[in-house]
Amino acid sequence: MRLSQFFLPTLKEVPSEAQIVSHQLMLRAGMIRQSSAGIYSWLPLGYRVLRKIEQIVREEQDAAGCQELLMPTIQPADIWRESGRYDDYGKEMLRITDRHGREMLYGPTNEELITEIVKASVRSYRDLPKLLYHVQWKFRDEVRPRFGVMRGREFLMKDSYSFDLDREGARRAYNKMFVTYLRTYARMGLKAIPMQADTGPIGGDLSHEFIILAQTGESEVFCDRELIERDVLSEAVDLDGDLQPVVDTWTSRYAATDEMHEPTRFEAEVPEDRRVSARGIEVGHIFYFGTKYSEAMGATVANQEGLQVPMEMGSYGIGVSRLVGAIIEACHDEAGIVWPRSVAPFDVGLINLKVGDLACDKAASDMYQSLRLAGLDVLYDDADERAGVKFANMDLIGLPFQVVVGPRGLKTGVVEIKNRATGKRYELSPESALAHLTV
Ligand code: 5CA
Prior knowledge:
The protein is α+β, with helices and mostly antiparallel strands and 439 residues long. The chain folds into two domains: 21-337, Bira Bifunctional Protein, Domain 2 (BirA Bifunctional Protein, domain 2), CATH 3.30.930.10; 346-437, Rossmann fold, CATH 3.40.50. Helices cover 34% and strands 28% of the residues. It contains 15 helices and 23 strands. Strands 3, 7, 8, 9, 10, 11, 12, 13 and 16 form a nine-stranded mixed β-sheet that branches. A five-stranded mixed β-sheet has the order 20-19-21-22-23, with helices on both faces. β22 and β23 (425-428) form a beta hairpin. α1 (21-28) crosses α11. The longest helix has 21 residues, at 167-187. The chain is globular. 5'-O-(N-(L-cysteinyl)-sulfamoyl)adenosine (5CA) binds at residues 109, 111, 140, 142, 151-152, 155, 157, 159, 202, 282-285, 287, 315-317, 319, 321-322.
């Protein structure tokens, strides 16, 4: 993509309405624009990141045998009356009446709708287990939407739902999602720690929040340092095997949000030098709630004895749009965003320092072609701007690598590569630069 053609409305000033760094940087880097309180448009740069995150979430869900479908954003009120949540949900639910006077709502979550779908076609224990998910916009009329996409009113969530015959089956599904979540966040360059959690309006008696540590986190969290130091991606797990021992290695160590924190237990179980108390951002939440919805909505199957039993269910959410902000909270410096490679909007920012100079134009354009041929996503700064502005903008949008083509370097046949995360710079021939970036 050529910067001269790209829609990237960056801002020089820090917008006054933005209190936290991720919100400031998302506005400054031209990733989002507010449409009304807690509701945002995703501009091209931001949308690229959102899609990358979605893709990682999808790949890991698919690997766990979870099947993707798509449910609508608008739901009928009836099914929420059946589950008993229509009144309980209160003002957070956006209620709508259609032209025929039918009561509808903009879904804040999908337990009812998925139960309705599965109930209509699953009749026997032989049809189970089922693990289904979608990635869809939700609406919650939060009292205080704030921190940009971190606490929005309209936000993108991945929500999965499991249906099993019995508790053991439901536990297997829960464990599968537990392990899958750890991998999902690790692939985004995040360390997410599962913490025992309150179940709130979703209900149930087993629940974990996945929390990443960041100074601006909304909740205070307490955990054992060993959980932070684990390298999830290097641990091989068999998703079809018994995952309980793996889950136990996480849940046997202390980790709790302030709602669930027990100071005396924390001190008894965790040696002083390993006690971490920090702030955290909830990037996912998983629930086992058994037959809460299936019983209320009559979602039963025939078991091996031919008896009708309500299905055992769980639901599993990931805050896809919140993750964009959360990743920035975890990955930035004074100059701007520092994207982990796996979610970066482009792999490389190519800067032509002297647009209009024949040698620079040719070298930059050749480099642009070669990088793209090698399969990299490149943002090519071909705009006629001062070098200082170009560097500042590239640092702000935080692409993992910058390649700088300038007249001085070209005289000795080199270009410069800058690693955004480490700040290290290398002067290399264009061929070596290409090799360096495509390993
Ligand atoms: N039905 C369950 C699981 S599918 C559910 O709705 N869980 S939840 O309420 O915990 O939401 C799942 C995730 O969505 C949260 O962990 C959080 O990361 C994200 N989320 C929740 N509310 C918001 C919000 N207002 N803005 C942005 N993300 C949100």
